[in-house]
Amino acid sequence: MDFAAPVTLENDFVRLEPLADTHAADLAAATAGLEDRWYTSVPSAAGVPAEIERRRGMNAEGSMNPFAIIRTDTGRAVGMTTYCDIDQPNRTVEIGYTWLSPEVHGTAVNPSAKRLLLAHAFETCGANRVQFCTHFHNRQSRAAIERLGAKLDGILRNHRVGADGALRDTVVYSILPHEWPAVRNGLDARLDRRR
């Protein structure tokens, strides 16, 4: 299966739906409290519709598959995530451009979403490699990626120019197919404690 193909994924905690304009109001509300995160890219509340359109455009080109992250207990969208940097011929993909409302930080939402995306990538799409990238200074994201069980591949220094013109060092992690069963077991154990 193609990483860019539309799909809805769901478990007890979250539903990942293809990103749509209908998610805009919830996502605009979800950005509250994220305005000071200089080390990550979160749209402003007013910028959410344009970000939805940008991500959907990249999906049309086949380079991204964007999702709204919906809490199953409330039915509200609380963030976005994507399959990005899609390399279908080599069956590699990145899970990234993820942001979540502060109200769900430290809950089952992020590990649940990652569990769904990783299972789909490895078990349905036959991924050879799933990558995660984050800003060197984004300690919260780095810790979350490491809790998943992803392995550190390295740091790409001066990798990107930020919106403010500052150079970003990007930390790269990955999970390979033979590592997925252990990562899956770890995620399942974490989520079982939240039931």
Automatic annotation (TrEMBL):
EC number: 2.3.1.-
Coiled coil regions, renumbered to chain: none
Single GO MF annotation: acyltransferase activity, transferring groups other than amino-acyl groups
Presence of the UniProt keyword Methyltransferase in the record: no
Keywords recorded for this protein, A-Z: Acyltransferase, Transferase
PROSITE patterns: GNAT (PS51186)
Domain N-acetyltransferase: 14-179
Descriptive protein name: Putative ribosomal N-acetyltransferase YdaF
Gene transcribed to yield this protein: ydaF_3
